[in-house]
Amino acid sequence: MTRIVRVGAAQMGPIARKESRSGVVDRLIALMRQAHSAGCDLVVFPELALTTFFPRWLIEDPGELDDWFEREMPGPETKRLFDEGRHLGIGFYLGYAELAREREATHHYNTSILVDKAGRIVGKYRKVHLPGTVDPLSGDPGQHLEKRYFEVGNLGFPVYRAFGGIIGMCICNDRRWPETYRVMGLQGVEMILLGYNSPVGLDGDPFEVNALEPFHNHLVMQSGAYQNATWVVGVAKAGHEEGFDMIGQSAIIAPSGEIVAMCRTLTDELITHDCDLDAGRYYRNTIFNFAAHRRTEHYRLIVERTGAEPPS
Amino acid sequence: MTRIVRVGAAQMGPIARKESRSGVVDRLIALMRQAHSAGCDLVVFPELALTTFFPRWLIEDPGELDDWFEREMPGPETKRLFDEGRHLGIGFYLGYAELAREREATHHYNTSILVDKAGRIVGKYRKVHLPGTVDPLSGDPGQHLEKRYFEVGNLGFPVYRAFGGIIGMCICNDRRWPETYRVMGLQGVEMILLGYNSPVGLDGDPFEVNALEPFHNHLVMQSGAYQNATWVVGVAKAGHEEGFDMIGQSAIIAPSGEIVAMCRTLTDELITHDCDLDAGRYYRNTIFNFAAHRRTEHYRLIVERTGAEPPS
Questions:
Q1: Cα(B191)–Cα(B232) distance, rounded to whole angstroms?
Q2: pLDDT in tens, B5-22
Q3: pLDDT digit string (tens) for A185-243?
Q4: How far is A240 from chain B (nearest CA, A)?
Q5: Of B129, B186, B257, the CB nearest to A308
Q6: What is the DSSP letter of A175?
């Protein structure tokens, strides 16, 4: 059995606030067709791929807020995307704002799904590491209110047998946390799919962190890939969206940590790669043979302590 | 109170098998004096800095093996180094093979110590992530027998208040494991000192991992620094030693993940940097505010599982 998965990373340019879901789905379908023409098994779309990045605004009306969310998946506008995927025989990863009815209440999550070539949802992930704040920062033109609008994901970091391998998912800020990759690595993950929306220039700071945003983006994905011997497919919503700049440089990263394909624009752009799911085997059997080398007795603080506590 | 620590990273070129401890200490003192002339508060030496990298050979005679270890620290040959440090008023990190008498038995560790400007040992670390094998690999000209010669460190990853900040240590292969940095990050570490001996070309492998060794070396240190908002000072024993090549590129890495100083040779070479221990504060207060963002309930597999277990 072949262990090559041809993956398309379908970066998106900006989505305007007024852009309709239907218009966005047209763009997704165009990218999906392009990926299919390139022979892809799987196409990866960004985080919150159906709308503009609405957490940048304070939205106080609950009904207006919920309009940014999907009540069902597939829903009225997204059904066409599922149908097209099934028709073409191509799977996809899609990020969206999920309005879920669970435990007799309504819940809001920043979610991604994995859909197989038959159009079936075979995996779901809800973002664990929500960045930003609950309350708006006064005087800041660009807010980042994910902690206000979303609950912390309640599914952990599951992996799924799909596309001939073991596939995991995460979303945006999750990629900065080594725990994200490691929990999936301990489940033998072979490919991690992740979408992101990463604004530049939200804060002034003395160490010029904003100029480093593209560097940090790749640094965390490359180290997460290498340290867990897994492919990582990171896909941006990029460009100048509603007055704010978002980084691009969507990348397909090998288990060696090397970037093997990268977007060069800030627009809708597809890159592809034939990902050999056995490419991580050498690392798994030697330097990153977890069973041989990990010493969990010395890691306990990772779960026993949340915040940093300096010694007395 | 100033929070600038001027650090010297004192890379060493190869140490021949026949080179005496005394000759090596001469080299360490020369580097220490150079660091003092450059105004350093602290100079960082490599892992196993007193001898050649002896785990590359199978040594079957226990007495011959123990000759590579230090029975006391400072000992007969290393006392001069401590005296010189105290005389100059400069601290140091030193890696060495430690023969310890504990629990009524003799123990072997791959150890580092932190010595203050008064020549007092103020911190000790014993390597947790021992690479290589217990048994020699047949047909391999270069062995890596750390698992045979050393016990797993029994001190965890402690941090120490020293040099006006919070200082942690690790050794060589520890740097590839995100748990290493995170356990120290959760103790508020501001600077991690680490020495390494990293051979190139021990294995043939289909993915040309050997050519990537210098890239991986920096990748893991840079991500560990950034993800924990800490300085990392990584110091190599480098060059062509007893028929084997070892990587150099010793580096001082800022909490941004940026390499701010790097060795350009494979010989004894000092690089220095004024490390602002407050440089990580911006990250600690925002994107890497652990208390605000970490979700330990989803990290449990990191301590509950040692090896990778694919889903059924």
A1: 6
A2: 999 999 999 999 999 999
A3: 999 999 999 999 998 865 555 445 678 999 999 999 999 999 999 999 999 999 999 99
A4: 22
A5: B186
A6: G
